[in-house]
Amino acid sequence: xxxxxxxxxxxxxxxxxxxxxxxxxxxxxxxxxxxxxxxxxxxxxxxxxxxxxxxxxxxxxxxxxxxxxxxxxxxxxxxxxxxxxxxxxxxxxxxxxxxxxxxxxxxxxxxxxxxxxxxxxxxxxxxxxxxxxxxxxxxxxxxxxxxxxxxxxxxxxxxxxxxxxxxxxxxxxxxxxxxxxxxxxxxxxxxxxxxxxxxxxxxxxxxxxxxxxxxxxxxxxxxxxxxxxxxxxxxxxxxxxxxxxxxxxxxx
Length: 252
Description:
Elements: H1 6-27, H2 48-59, E1 70-75, E2 102-105, E3 108-114, H3 121-139, H4 150-168, E4 171-175, E5 178-182, H5 189-202, H6 207-211, H7 216-230, H8 233-241
Parallel strand pairs: 1-3
Antiparallel strand pairs: 2-3, 4-5
Helix pairs in contact: 1-4, 1-5, 2-3, 3-4, 4-5, 5-7
C-alpha cells in the first residue's frame, strides 16, 4: 500500500482547506464520531424509520439545523447489480458506484439510499456520512450538484465522520464469487485515510483514537497517512490556523 499520488494529496489538502476557510466557524471543533453505542445509541431494525433515525443522529454531529426538511428515497439495484447475492461485495462497490445521495426539493432535501446498503452497517453509515457532507455543502451555499462528489466526502471528514467514511472505503465481504473488497466511497481507502489523518492532526487528537475502530486495511492506510502528516507540520499548521493559504492548492 502506498500514499496517494502527489496531485491527489494536493487536492485533498486544498479541498479540506477551502472548506475550513469557507465555513470553518460553523464546523467548529467536531467530535471524532465512532461506530459505538456512545455515538449511536438508537436501536436499528433495518427499516425506513431506523435509517431516518440514524441519519438524523449523524446530522446532529454536523452544523445542520435540527428541523432541516428531509425525505428518504430507497433505490433498488439496477442492471448488472440486480440479482446478486445482496452482500456489500455484490452491491454498488467501487468508487464509481458511490452514487449521488442528495438532491434539493421544494421543502428541503431528498436523500437517496440503496436498499442493498441497509444490510451492511459500514456501507450504510458511509452512504449517510456522504449525505451529511453533501447537506453541509448545500447549506453552506457550495456547488454540490453531485451528491456523490468527493467534496461531500471531505466535508463528512471535516464534520468528524472520517472513521465511518474510511471503514466504508474498503469493505471485505463474501460475494457470489468469494471474498472480495467493495468500495462504498468515491475516495480510495488511501485518500480517505489521508483526510482522516489531517482531521486528527488539525484537531490535535491522538492517532489511537482514530485507529481504535478502523479495519485492518484502513489502519494500514492510516498509518501511512499519519506518517505523512507528521512529516508535513507546516501544512497541518496552515490548515489549522490559515486554511485560506492552502485553498488554491499552490503550496510546496
